[in-house]
Design the sequence.
């Protein structure tokens, strides 16, 4: 533990009397912290208005890329976004610390150019507190490991969900085809439900007909787009009842 002299202690106390924070209303407004509840996790966060807007924008961009659905996927996606934010913040702290060190040490460095002077001041800052910068590196390493684990878990959840959705849609299309084959009355306003998924009849017909059109297009592409060549398959397109 580093000790200081009585004179230094008194000087610190005197300086503290002058450091009372922002005094104007504009300054107080800029530095004011506001509590906000996260819409997905329900957690409270205390941030300045500027930081809250910056984080919200960052998180929205991350979630748009991760495309989570449901509570569990959203929880993992928010955790990933928050950990990326923490990494960015730790890097900002590192850069700011080097900047502070530069301001404190650069005048004591004799060098033949400003670039060399700045480089030496930066190196001296690191040498003065190497453990501090090592802690930042360790913090980032742990965050990256957590991010990788959460991304893996999220990908597995999304793969299972998408496969379940694909199978449910396939079953819904088959049920609709079967109804048409049996010439049953199909009400276009009554959705088809399979394993908790709901599909509208017009949506399913559009999907089925698109697949039929692609199959037919692939056939004619194979034979050089000879439109006079008869298509050997039965027309499987569906149509809404009049």
Sequence:
């Amino acid at each position: 533990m580093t000790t200081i002299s009585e004179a230094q202690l008194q000087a610190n106390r005197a300086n503290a009397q002058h450091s009372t924070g922002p005094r104007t209303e504009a300054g107080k407004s800029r530095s004011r912290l506001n509590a906000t509840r996260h819409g997905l996790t329900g957690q409270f966060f205390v941030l300045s208005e500027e930081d809250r807007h910056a984080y919200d924008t960052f998180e929205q961009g991350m979630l748009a890329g991760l495309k989570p659905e449901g509570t569990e996927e959203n929880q993992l996606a928010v955790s990933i976004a928050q950990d990326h934010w923490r990494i960015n913040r730790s890097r900002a702290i590192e850069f700011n610390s080097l900047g502070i060190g530069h301001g404190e040490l650069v005048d004591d460095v004799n060098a033949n150019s400003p670039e060399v002077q700045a480089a030496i001041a930066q190196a001296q800052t690191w040498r003065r507190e190497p453990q501090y910068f090592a802690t930042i590196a360790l913090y980032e390493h742990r965050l990256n490991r957590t991010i990788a684990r959460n991304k893996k878990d999220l990908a597995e959840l999304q793969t299972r969900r998408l496969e379940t959705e694909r199978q449910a849609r396939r079953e819904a299309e088959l049920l609709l085809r079967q109804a048409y084959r049996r010439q049953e009355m199909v009400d276009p306003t009554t959705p088809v439900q399979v394993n908790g998924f709901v599909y509208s009849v017009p949506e399913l017909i559009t999907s089925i007909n698109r697949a039929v059109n692609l199959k037919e297009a692939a056939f004619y592409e194979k034979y050089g787009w000879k439109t006079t060549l008869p298509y050997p398959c039965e027309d499987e397109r569906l149509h809404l009842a009049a």
